[in-house]
Write a structure and sequence with these properties.
Elements (H helix, E strand, L loop, with lengths): L1 E5 L6 E6 L18 E4 L6 E13 L2 E6 L20 E5 L11 E7 L8 E5 L8 E3 L3 H4 L5 E4 L13 E4 L2 H5 L2 H4 L15 H9 L15 E4 L7 E5 L22 E3 L6 H22 L1
Parallel strand pairs: 1-13
Antiparallel strand pairs: 1-3, 2-4, 4-5, 4-6, 6-7, 7-12, 8-9, 8-13, 10-11, 10-14
């Protein structure tokens, strides 16, 4: 049993994709309000990935999301994966039919396809198995050339500027063999080395995959936990202890298209700075009076 929990201050719409040859769960897409959890049964031997979609809405009866959209036009992902960038929780559970190796579950959190929300994966019922994840707010530190923002500088329900809503991988941003670990010169672990961009992701989330061959510090195992103990998958794990990850979102709002930021100031941030400057000036004038 997997328990999917939304600890974000905004709604998320988790998606689930099963790998070929493994049975899908009863649901492949659903909504979670802040603080809400949903148990999802996954079969022994299941292999696939989970992620959070954000800033989702219906438009003329078609469902879509600004980040992590699976492109079905409905709440269910139905065999479709997340459009990058999205933080992925990946699993291969052990079974009696040979999936997994030596009775072990394998799990990881991957930023190879970029990042949209913080994620924690925690095995239950087996104290020897380690939790892993990417709890950091990578959006806040994302390089401008990788950042994804909402066109028009919209704001969430709290009135705060949303700013960056996702952070692309270098492969997703530039598409070159060096960043994608592809082609004859970069297609093996020996020829595809970490780059400045993958090192940025690794510094933000040391236990998450930062590029395609980042296996040594990013893959975790647990002795058959999918056959009994199960797993918790928590989005925005730090928020319950007072942290806050961007962006806030509204299920009811209709959001404009994404825009890739290549520099310059966020219009909403610029506006807020100007307002603060005016207020300070008025305060100084009043003191003079």
């Amino acid at each position: 049993m997997f328990t999917i929990t939304n600890s974000c201050s905004y709604p998320v719409w988790p998606g689930i994709l099963s790998n070929a040859g493994t049975p899908p769960p009863p649901t492949t897409g659903f909504a979670l309000s802040p603080g809400q959890s949903l148990p999802v049964p996954l079969a022994a031997g299941w292999s696939g990935r989970l992620w959070a979609r954000t800033l989702c809405a219906y438009n003329n009866s078609s469902f879509s999301c600004v980040t992590g959209d699976c492109g079905t036009g409905t709440l269910e992902c139905s065999g479709h994966g997340a459009a990058p960038p999205a933080t992925l929780a990946e699993f291969t559970l052990s079974s009696n039919t040979g999936a997994g190796a030596g009775g072990l579950d394998f799990y990881d959190v991957s930023l190879v396809d970029g990042y949209n929300v913080p994620v924690l994966v925690a095995p239950r019922g087996n104290a020897s198995c380690r939790a892993t994840g990417c709890p950091a707010d990578v959006n806040a530190a994302c390089p401008r050339e990788l950042s994804v923002s909402v066109a028009g500088g919209g704001v969430g329900p709290s009135g705060a500027a949303r700013g960056v809503v996702a952070c692309r991988s270098a492969c997703g941003a530039f598409g070159t063999a060096e960043y994608c670990c592809s082609g004859p010169d970069h297609g093996t672990p020996n020829t595809c080395a970490p780059t400045a961009y993958s090192k940025f992701f690794k510094a933000e989330c040391p236990e998450a995959y930062s590029y395609a061959y980042d296996d040594a510090s990013s893959t975790f195992t647990c002795a058959g936990n999918g056959n009994g103990g199960g797993y918790d998958v928590v989005f925005c794990p730090g928020e319950s202890s007072g942290g806050k990850a961007s962006p806030p979102a509204s299920a009811a709002a209709a959001y404009p298209p994404m825009a890739f930021s290549s520099g310059g100031a966020n219009p909403a941030t610029t506006t807020s700075h100007a307002v603060i400057a005016v207020l300070l000036l008025l305060f100084i004038i009043n003191l003079g009076l």
